[in-house]
Amino acid sequence: MRIVIRCYKYRLQPTPAQVGTLVQWAGCRRFVWNWALHCKQAQFQATGQRLSYQQLGAMLVDLKRQPKTAFLRDCHSQPLQQSLMDLETAFTNFFAKRAKYPRFKSRKITPHSLRFPQGVVVVDERTISVPKIGQMRAIIHRPLQGRAKGATIKQAATGAWWVVFVCHIERPDTPLTADRPVGIDGGLESFTTLHTGEKTAPPKFYRRSQKKLAHAQRKLARAQKGSNNRAKARKRVARIHQKISNQRTDWLHKHALDIVQ
């Protein structure tokens, strides 16, 4: 048997109270990341030694008991622990020269995101269950397959909330065979060229939306920083980019299906 990893992304429809809780928890996650990064830097500068994930986990327990940081106890423990694990992974990638040095996270530019290794489950076609929050409305457009190994709840630039499940699916370890093999060549003038000579022109969704995008970006540039109008203009630009991304994804799936069929 072989394991196939597949992600399932669903749109969430949280209530205003649930949105407030998610935003608060995301702020706690950023706070723990910045606190742990500061502790690592201070420890290395003072002693030349590194703090491990286990040491930071024990320090996090003590941090929750302090009066000034008692607000961390309102957040579920899993996102905070995952924040420490993400920081450990970031340093591992840095020392392996696969990524840059980890930076402090800012509230203004860091998107709201929470990761749960367990506990988030699909209840029915319209509901999921989140630990310490309860049931939350969602659009489950297709059922999960395999075993859910974790879930990430995040907010897009448009303001919409999404949940992404990572599932492990067991498949029989059989060799893949093709009855009708197809040769495909990708290019600029033609998106794909098949071995039969059939060509497919690129869709150019971005160029079709350039005028609308430029108009929205000019409004964003003229809006005063920190104002409500600027926040609205930023979301308008994000929605246009999201629509272009959705159009590309939809076209790619349909084009690949046409080739397979």
- The total number of structural domains is 2
What percent of the residues sit in helical stretches (DSSP H or I)?
40-55%
Mean pLDDT comes to 91
Order of helices and strands: EHHHEEEEEEEEEHHH
In the predicted model, the low-confidence regions spanning at least 5 consecutive residues are none
Strand content is: 15-25%
Largest sheet: 7 strands, antiparallel
Structural class category:
alpha+beta
* Cα end-to-end separation: 27 Å
The count of DSSP E runs of length 2 or more, i.e. the number of strands, is 10
Q: Cα-atom Rg, whole angstroms? A: 23 Å
Protein name: IS200/IS605 family transposase ISDge10
Pfam family, one: OrfB_IS605
InterPro entries: Transposase, Transposase_put_HTH
Domain Probable transposase IS891/IS1136/IS1341: 166-261
Description:
This protein is α+β, with helices and mostly antiparallel strands and 261 residues long. It has two domains: 172 residues, no CATH class; 77 residues. The chain contains six helices and ten strands, in the order βαααβββββββββααα. The strands form two sheets. It has a seven-stranded antiparallel beta sheet with strand order 2-6-7-1-5-4-3. A hairpin with a 3-residue loop joins strand 4 and strand 5. The two termini are 27 Å apart.
Features:
single chain; 261 residues; alpha+beta; 2 domains; 7-stranded antiparallel beta sheet; 3-stranded antiparallel beta sheet; 6 helices; 44% helix; globular
